[in-house]
Amino acid sequence: MFEAFWNFLNRVSDSDGVYVGERRRELALSNKSYVTEYHPCVRVKPVARWEWRRSKGEFAVDFSSEANPHVNISGMSGFGKSTLCKRLIKEIRESLHLPVSIFDVHSEYVDFTRQFGGEVHSPKESSINMWELDGVSPAERISENAAMLKRILKLGDIQAYSLMTCAERAYEKRGIRQNEKDSWAEEPPAMRDVYDCIAESMGGKGSSRQSYAGLSKRLYPLLMSNVFSAKTTLPFRRILEGLNDFSMAELGSSEAQALFIETFLRKLYSYMLSQKLADGIRLFVVIDEAHRVCISEGEELSLPGRLVSEGRKYGVGIITSNQMAKNLDRAIIANSAVTFAFYQREPQECEYMASLIAGGTDNERREVVRSKIRNLRQFECIALTSVAREPLLVEVMPLWRET
Ligand SMILES: Nc1ncnc2c1ncn2[C@@H]1O[C@H](COP(=O)(O)OP(=O)(O)OP(=O)(O)O)[C@@H](O)[C@H]1O
Ligand SMILES: [Mg+2]
């Protein structure tokens, strides 16, 4: 009873850190003595070994000391990734008083968001238009969107080129021309307008007809809901103030969800620049099930991947969670200052996480970490930060155990 009260007092005074859970063990080099020879006499020698030494106290992440404000959480299904995300969101709101936006792929944060006084946005009610210029020229917007759609929808080179010509036509139909700067203020086209231009081009002959038909088939699912076919209605000012959940299950495909997230982040950043809000951390973004929606291709990173690689520059901290790190942008895993690894069974994945956490070339150290990852219990994880000397075994405190 007294201990619980003391812990509570400590937490109230420790306002810099974002509380995660309780420290249970720490990776440490022990110098135990072992018998190394029996003959002619017993000889005892100290041998250095890596071990998980008992550790006590609270574990909190101090984002002001970390190399960047990005967090990656990996682990097998059901071991506590979303539980940790919810803990981090609550603590970021309460200790750092920063806004948090959740990209909710399975719409599983709806009740949680409402419980903490946040706002839930559904694609039925909000829309986002990726073709709005937001301060760049039509040519720049077309080439940026074509590259994004090519990467996410896995379009071929010819399809991407056809998309660019149709998008140019869609702008022209709205009276917007690259070399007439005054025309850039006109109402921009939306996804439906670009799609209609593609449909018009399908009347041609031969291989170009096939390319347009293929393109229209790839873009068609984006028209299922109106989310991409109307003016942007997302209230960025409010998003930069509180807790917001973008419940995206209704969007259906991972591609549509990825396009929503990337367009949102890009627009948010231009809004922050226009409001001169880009220094310091202004917002945390949570992407649960990130392996579904952070879609990179070869050297080309997803936008969340690019933001994570750029460190603190954008003023947005990105928290990603995924079942398998190897299915996610390597840039996200490699550049997140804070990593949490939950239980993992898949051998390659286990090996990868062990190497990431152990670092260096010490095989024994890696083996000790690897075997711990295979023995973690539900809600236990290995935490590695850019400021801590060694990895820690932390037990995450689920929110429901508090009530
Ligand atoms: N409110 C609650 N009360 C009791 N148990 C809960 C509650 N919410 C979640 N759990 C349990 O916590 C466990 C971990 O759930 P969590 O959603 O954090 O896993 P996860 O790692 O995110 O899995 P996935 O990859 O499938 O999303 C589950 O077994 C779930 O049943
Ligand atoms: Mg989950």
Quick gist of this model?
By secondary structure, the chain is α/β, with parallel strands linked by helices. Helix content is 39%, strand content 20%. It folds into two domains: 59-126 and 234-401, P-loop containing nucleotide triphosphate hydrolases (Rossmann fold, 3-Layer(aba) Sandwich), CATH 3.40.50.300; 138-227, Helicase, Ruva Protein, domain 3.
Protein described:
- The longest helix is centred in the middle third of the chain and has 21 residues, at 254-274.
- A hairpin with a 5-residue loop joins strand 1 and strand 2 (43-54).
- Helices cover 39% and strands 20% of the residues.
- It contains 14 helices and twelve strands.
- Strands 1, 2, 3, 4, 5, 6, 7, 8, 9, 10, 11 and 12 form a twelve-stranded mixed beta sheet that branches.
- The chain is elongated.
- The model is unreliable at 1-15 (pLDDT under 50).
- The protein folds into two domains: 59-126 and 234-401, Rossmann fold, CATH 3.40.50; 138-227, Orthogonal Bundle (Helicase, Ruva Protein, domain 3).
- The protein starts with a helix and ends in a 7-residue tail after the last strand.
- It has 403 residues and is α/β, with parallel strands linked by helices.
- Bound molecules: adenosine-5'-triphosphate (ATP) and magnesium ion.
- Magnesium ion is lined by residues 81-82, 288.
